[in-house]
Design a protein that fits this description.
This protein is α+β, with helices and mostly antiparallel strands and 265 residues long. It has three domains: 2-73, no CATH class; 75-128; 133-263, Mannose-Binding Protein A, Chain A, CATH 3.10.100.10. Helices cover 28% and strands 23% of the residues. It has helices spanning 2-22, 37-46, 50-73, 156-165, 176-185, and strands spanning 93-102, 117-126, 139-140, 146-154, 169-170, 194-199, 236-242, 245-251, 257-263. Helix 2 packs antiparallel against helix 3 (50-73). The chain is globular, with a radius of gyration of 23 Å.
Length: 265
């Protein structure tokens, strides 16, 4: 699919360049941020050019296919917040629950209609104030995760040791809730890269993770432009927040970066 996009974009740029040179009275200008399939169709209609309209419809279809694939991977709402711990006293144990709604038999992958399945998750918890804090200056997020952003810079190996020294691991952002919470926590920290969980043996090998599931396969990860690249030395994952948008990048493991740690309960 990546090759197809490059070919289509090359054709698009070539044709627009030709139109500009011809100085037609119907010249249309489209801002880079507004360039999409719908605008290509409009340009093709204005210039009466079938090629532009074909490319535009192709982009529209690709976008719809990608959206449907994501909907099929995530047919559920976000989990609710965890309920209060049922433990009666600081020396007691109890449980917490959370729920979400899922539509596994919708008429359309993104419709969220038809029978609704209510899913419930539970976990053991400690009572009293102990449950309300994460310890070691870690922050408990909206969805109940204990995470910490460390502004000091480490190589990948150094970041692993730093998190482990605090009873944590480099954060694996493997759920929609973790993605939202880490983006909210770092919303004021822009253009700085930080280590996240994820390494691979070579540029063609699958990503492996110390904890949790593979976020590159379940629709959670949002890749940066041109990512993940195939450079033979880019074997470690890092994240960044640019313009309020969180993205993943593949890079060399010896770079110095900040680190995001999580204590998984």
């Amino acid at each position: 699919m990546a090759v197809s996009f490059k070919v289509l974009f090359a054709v698009f740029v070539t044709f627009v360049g030709y139109c500009s040179a011809s100085k037609t009275s119907q010249l249309i200008s489209v801002l880079r941020k507004d360039a999409d399939g719908e605008n290509l169709i409009k340009m093709g209609t204005s210039f009466n050019n079938s090629m532009l309209k074909l490319i535009g419809h192709t982009f529209v279809n690709l976008e719809e296919n990608v959206v449907h694939e994501l909907c099929q991977k995530t047919p559920c709402t976000l989990w609710s917040n965890w309920t209060n711990c049922t433990a009666n006293g600081t020396d007691a144990f109890g449980f917490q629950t959370r729920v979400r709604k899922c539509w596994y038999n919708s008429t359309d992958a993104c419709a969220h209609d038809g029978p609704v399945t209510i899913e419930t998750a539970s976990k053991v918890c400690e009572g009293g104030h102990v449950q309300q804090t994460c310890g070691r200056a870690y922050i408990r997020t909206k969805h109940g995760f204990c995470i910490k952003y460390i502004a000091a810079e480490f190589t990948r190996a150094g970041a692993v040791k730093k998190c482990q020294s605090e009873g944590a691991n480099i954060m694996n952002i493997d759920t929609k809730e973790r993605w939202i919470d880490h983006a909210n926590l770092l919303s004021n920290i822009t253009s700085s890269f930080f280590w996240v969980d994820g390494t691979r043996q070579n540029s063609k090998a699958p990503w492996s993770f110390r904890v949790g599931t593979d976020p590159t396969k379940n629709g959670v990860v949002q890749w940066g432009v041109g990512q993940p690249n195939s450079n033979k030395d880019n074997l470690c994952l890092s994240g960044t927040i640019i313009g309020g948008k969180a993205s993943y990048y593949a890079g060399t493991c010896v770079l110095s970066r900040h680190v995001l740690c999580e204590i998984r309960k």
